Amino acid sequence: MPGFGDGAIMGWWRARGLYMHRREFLKKAAALAGAAFVENSLDRTAAQAQAPPLPNVLFILCDQWRAQALSSAGDPNVRAPNVDAMAAAGARLTHCYSNSPLCTPCRSMLMSGRYPTRTNCFVNDVLMPLEEYCVAEAFRDAGYSTGYIGKWHLDGDPKPGYVEPGPHRQGWDYWAAFNRGHDYFSGVYYEDSPTPISVPSGKFEPDHQTDLAINWIAGRVGETAPWFLTVSFGPPHTPYRAPQAYMDLFDPAALILRPNVSGDVTQARTDLRGYYALIKNLDDNIGRLLQCLSDNGLADDTVVVLTADHGDMHYSQGQVHKSKPWEESIGVPFIVRWPGGLSAGRVVDSLFASIDIHPTLCGLCGVPIPPGKDGADYSHLLRGLPGPERQSVYLTIGLPSAASAWRGVRTAQYTYAWKGGVSGAPWVLYDNFADPYQMNNLAADPGSQALRDQLHDLLRQWVYDVGDSFFGPPSGVENWRTY
Fold first, then answer.
1. How many domains does the chain divide into?
2. 186 CB-side CA count, 13 A
3. Both 453 and 312 in a single domain?
4. pLDDT for res 472
């Protein structure tokens, strides 16, 4: 049974101890798989040797960019022609969801491919266990050079935070990053010394991070090894303030709000002005990165991915922040461009989740998928090929014992969430086909009891399968369907 073992989860640190012992085995197994891949490559047949080389990967991770804030998703306020062009030239998944719409929990899943029940990264500012075998390690063991630029947020509480070389960097070799923070106008980062490096005076942080990325990519030209570079931008996360030239592009009064916005509409408009200004800056920098690939003859051989760790509410449902089960919080962009390997203009409506990104990137690039991952390889969807599809997405926020914690499921049609653990209650239930802006909550509707029971059973099964103690210890003995 998945989880920490056959017994109940006995608390944060004890569970971690049980888990770390298990992961040491899985990490060694994955390393052996990577070694076998390299060894077997020496014995390829002549036909296999003619296969194209492994592609490079440019993974662009943004913080708090919601799925709805795309022109291709119908947002009339967005100005992002480079992202639009990227989507037109590749594949766009319309239903990609953050399994845990909060920075550290989601980032831990992006790196490890495993749920917080395995890593204990249920909340922000905790250390992802060093024993995790992460995506950069999988690619590095397959022969890739690796690099990471920007925000990390997986090394505990330090802010901005020097992340030590070695296990703390989870397989990323080149490093120009910091643990956490959003100081866009006077930021710092670290390389291989605890002495902070200041972003040049007058330089907006994403602009400088893009400069670093362009220099690193240009430095790989001529190398035989493929590379994997993550550029982790802080925007469009708060503070919603971009350089003035970008702010001037947006008039708060002219912004078109989503129909489900309520509450302080004036503040919503003020925040959204900065949000869209930050997105416009990111789009310009994404354009620079794409141009760099083209200038260096790397465009056809590079998989470029754009996604985010979570979305943001911006007063939809009267809510200000992320960490909620509504679409504006859980929905994130997922766009992949690879001219040498994917057809242009593909739009995929199948369910997809952050937990799937690690194995899907491995599958897309021909890198062995490490054992023990909770997500699945859905690279066939990007290629337009038939194959399995995700039937539901498991959603989670908070330590299992926290009164404010919630768990949920997103199916193709419905969103359901329960708040407060075993003594809690249904929180939201929406029919997303009939109610795309989620303005009719059916959680307490007597006529929806059968549907609610069905979705609750699905949620219970997810909780049980991933070893979550949200509804009580998942020992397999208790009547976990009783509520």
1. 2
2. 0
3. no
4. 84
Range of the domain at 439: 391-483
- Please give the Cα distance from 185 to 135 (Å, whole number): 31
- Cite the DSSP H helix spans in 156-264: 205-219, 244-247
Phi, psi of 352 (to 5 degrees): -150, 160
- Residue 397 sits in a domain of what CATH number? 3.30.1120.10
Q: How confident is the model at residue 51 (pLDDT cuts 50, 70, 90)?
A: low
pLDDT tens string 419-452: 999 899 999 999 999 999 999 999 999 999 999 9
With contact defined as beta carbons under 8 Å apart, do 355 and 99 qualify?
yes
User: Of 356, 383, 410, which residue constitutes the final position of a domain?
Assistant: 383
333-366 pLDDT tens trace: 999 999 999 999 999 999 999 999 999 999 999 9
pTM score: 0.90
Same-domain pairing of 280 and 207? yes
Please list the alpha-helical segments (H only) found in 192-326: 205-219, 244-247, 265-295
Query: 418 with 364, same domain?
Result: no
Active-site positions?
103, 153
Asked whether residue 200 falls in the same domain as residue 287, the answer is: yes
Q: How many CB atoms lie within 10 A of CB 283?
A: 19
45 pLDDT higher than 90: no
> What single DSSP character describes residue 390?
B
CA distance 378 to 341: 15
Residues 416 and 372 in one domain: no
Does residue 222 share a domain with residue 104? yes
302-308 and 334-337 as β-strands: parallel, antiparallel, unpaired?
antiparallel
Whether residues 425 and 324 share a domain: the answer is no
The string of pLDDT tens digits covering residues 291-338 is 999 999 999 999 999 999 999 999 999 999 999 999 999 999 999 999
Asked if residue 152 belongs to a domain, the reply is yes
